[in-house]
């Protein structure tokens, strides 16, 4: 009598029956891989719809040095932090305080972990009046923003490297004037890449700004 063993017999032609749960595991793995492939394809095919104007491809953000609001030497280096960079000045009557207010509200909407990786930096375009002490008093109204003073002509070079401009206007005296300046906010990722910029008119859309920041942080 020929006996059929519990293991596959060589040359017997007996079919090996895989346990049902093994087949189920294979099926689940296959579905997971398929869905993962679909997700990756969708991400590549349909880029994230950023609200701001995107730098494509991202550019390396120019580094710069100056003095912060505490009078300490300051060198801009993201070091893993996403940065909202704004060129403005403390005597600005409207756009600057509103921009910094919106950016402070944006930061408050982030999780504590995200807040630790997000910073707001104000580069003054009025180094004549914006001393570190003046900057410190000003940025204290806007949470954890950092104010930076850069002397001329270095300031002009830094602004130009970002595509920003500024010029004195409505001059009524040596210390009585306004400064017309670029109103964009530059979003720089943790690797020091310029990812996008927001126009001043977009800053009130906090939901959209938050989505942009969180996507850049991924």
TrEMBL record:
Keywords: Copper, Disulfide bond, Membrane, Metal-binding, Transmembrane, Transmembrane helix. It comes from the Bacteria. Residues 55-218 form the Thioredoxin domain. Cu cation binds at residues 92, 96, 181. Disulfide bonds join 92-96. The keyword tRNA processing does not apply. Belongs to the SCO1/2 family. This is SCO family protein.
């Amino acid at each position: 009598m020929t006996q059929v063993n519990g293991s596959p017999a060589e040359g017997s032609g007996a079919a090996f029956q895989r346990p049902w749960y093994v087949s189920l595991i294979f099926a689940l793995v296959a579905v997971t891989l398929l869905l993962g492939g679909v997700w990756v394809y969708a991400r590549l095919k349909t880029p994230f719809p950023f609200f701001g104007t995107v730098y494509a491809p991202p550019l390396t953000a120019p580094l710069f040095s100056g003095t912060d609001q505490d009078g300490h030497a300051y060198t801009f280096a993201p070091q893993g932090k996403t940065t909202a960079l704004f060129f403005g000045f403390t005597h600005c009557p409207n756009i600057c305080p509103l921009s910094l207010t919106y950016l402070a509200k944006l930061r408050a909407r982030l999780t504590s972990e995200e807040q630790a990786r997000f910073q707001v930096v104000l580069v003054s375009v009025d180094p004549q009046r914006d001393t570190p002490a003046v900057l410190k008093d000003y940025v204290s109204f806007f949470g954890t923003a950092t104010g930076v003073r850069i002397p001329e002509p270095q300031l002009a070079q830094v602004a130009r490297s970002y595509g920003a401009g500024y010029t004195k206007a409505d001059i009524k005296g040596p210390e009585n004037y306004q400064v017309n300046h670029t109103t964009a906010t530059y979003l720089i990722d943790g690797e020091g890449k310029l990812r996008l910029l927001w126009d001043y008119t977009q800053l009130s859309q906090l939901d959209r700004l938050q989505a942009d920041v969180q996507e850049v942080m991924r």
